[in-house]
Amino acid sequence: MAGDSTLxxxxxxxxxxxxxxxxxxxxxxxxxxxxxxxxxxxxxxGRCSQCGVPYCSVHCPLHNHIPDWLRLxxxxxxxxxxxxxxxxxxxxxxxxxxxxxxxxxxxxxVIEFSGHGAVTIGSVEKFITDxxxxxxxxxxxxxxxxxxxxxxxIGAGPAxxxxxxxxxxLGYDVHVYDRHDRAGGLLTYGIPGxxxxxxVVTRRVxxxxxGGIVFHESFEVGRDASLDDLRQRHDAILIATxxxxxxxxKAPGVGSDGVVEALEYLTASNRKGFGDAVPAFDNGSLDxxxxxxxxxxxxxxxxDCVRTAIRQGATxxxxxxxxxxANMPGSQREVANAxxxxxxxxxxSAPQAFDAxxxxxxxxxTRMRLGAADASGRRAPEPEPDSNFAxxxxxxxxxxxxxxxxxxxxxxxxxxxxTRWGTVLVDNKTLMTSLDGVxxxxxxxxxxxxxxxxxxDGRDVSTAMHAWLKAKAAAGRKAA
Length: 480
Fold this sequence. Notes:
alpha/beta, Fumarate Reductase Iron-sulfur Protein, Chain B, domain 2, FAD/NAD(P)-binding domain, 3 domains, five-stranded parallel β-sheet, 20 helices, 15 strands, oxidoreductase, GltD-like
């Protein structure tokens, strides 16, 4: 019975896998915590209350069967736990590592509300699937019976990869086109190794390649082919490019050398981790070593930047954010990790100008206060009078988030409909764009969001594409 192995939250304390000491983990880009030993995983999974309405599942974008695979883990039935976890997610071990569980499943755990501390869902999820890889339980991607139709996926990030996997399993020929030389999108080049070691992404991609999905890397739509060219090659197209246009800061000196974009900085660091030649890193432009670093922003990308700078040997690292800690969009766990590693947070502060000689030398900022709530319900920051101050800076990293690129222009497809925010406009039921047979999913539709939402969108759009392609094939047979 479930009660024999679960419901242990009263007499069993919450315990996450131990983190390495801050000084030690700041010396490399390895993940900061190892996974559970099997006994520890079973014990922590056994804390689940198996509640009648599992808010953890409700608040998971994928609606993972969390209480069920926690129970199976607590009973030592790991292979069954993996199969159930894998049934709703194409990347459970990636979500276990990088999802903000404190805002999603764990933040809505019933025993968290009761004061006993949430079940450590993400750490158990990571344990389950890493064990499955080691034990050989992760099965190859087996294509369904060939349908004689092909799908072209633009973008090899989580939304595109998830949709590609589902479409291939349904029997479609699948081609993935991506501008980078490695698949994975932000999983590969945006998220640092201390949160997601790269072999975790690589083995997923290799599984897709072995299943017959064809990857066209270093391929830019608009340069190597227009969107219309791809429409001629394939029966259906999915746009899953994500959003990569950095939000700008309007302030004097923002164009100075040494004021760089977050993704440019993180990509350079991740490429060095792969062993690539990165001239802008090697000449010091994108290397924080020995520098006073100021990162502007309060989301998870900003946290990735500050923690990367620490590992590169920065002299000091400060994070400048215009709201307070309670109102920042990033994960509180990431903030705590950053503070442990030596990052200083300058809350309620916003940049006004960037001083520079040949390169940036400092940031002039002003203190902020939280005023009335804005349209989203968050209290809007406003400047405090006469509160200017200055910070020394040899490297300033702008991490204010991302917007959509101008895809109709980039893709040579002016007829592609977009919203007033530049995201691709889709029909909410069919997930099709204004172009027949062209679908879109992930951040390019919903705006900058979480990896788990991209995976969910990839799953949903593959279902929509399958329905449309079946109808297209049936119409073709009828016409013949």
